[in-house]
Amino acid sequence: MPVSTTLTRSRFLGFDHLGGRRAALTALLYRGAAVMGVGARYRSLDAAAIDRLVFVCRGNICRSPFAQAVAERLGFEAASFGIEADRGAAPPAAAIRVAREHGFDVSQHRAARGEDIASRASDLVVAFEPSHLASLPRSCAGQRTLMGAWAPRPTLYIHDPHGASDAHFARCFETIESAIRMLVARIREAHANERR
Fold first, then answer.
1. DSSP character for 92?
2. What are the residue boundaries of the structural domains of the chain, listed by start?
3. Helices (H), 36-109
4. Which residue, 65, 77, 141, 174, could crosslink 119 as a Cys pair with Cβ 3.0–4.6 Å?
5. Are 131 and 28 in contact (CB under 8 A)?
6. Which CATH architecture has domain 3-195?
7. Is 17 exposed, middle or buried (CB count within 10 Å of its CB: 0-12, 13-18, 19+)?
């Protein structure tokens, strides 16, 4: 089947904003796993011990830079890196454009790898896919979780929007922002309870 026909059918069937049919099916499987409770362990944290969020994705040019920008806007210390990042790479135009539409500027971000970030025991490493957690460098300390576990509709997988439509970027970034707001609120509540 020609690519153009596949793309047209994907859009017609409503998969475009999900990153395409394959991404939609993968997300559906992981969402089902989350609903069945497989992801509960990713919400079990010693939140009072966390003082920085470290976001990790594949290339550190779309999901994790946006997540870092959201956390920092909320006044929480954050960093990010990519498992397979091309050091110094800039976010694609779509990521910059859609982030700006959501009120965030990621245009100055440049990709980093895990070795570029000084790891701390008080970090919470937040990944977007289970494979990211499995691929973390040995030097990566701290607790670990999946971003989607904190989303309004929990999932274990947030698809990489790189190369996808603006609609998919928007959906991805909305999910990330909602999840971070919930996660930061949980950490701040734990910090406040510890001070009492």
1. P
2. 3-195
3. 63-73, 93-101
4. 141
5. no
6. 3-Layer(aba) Sandwich (3.40)
7. middle
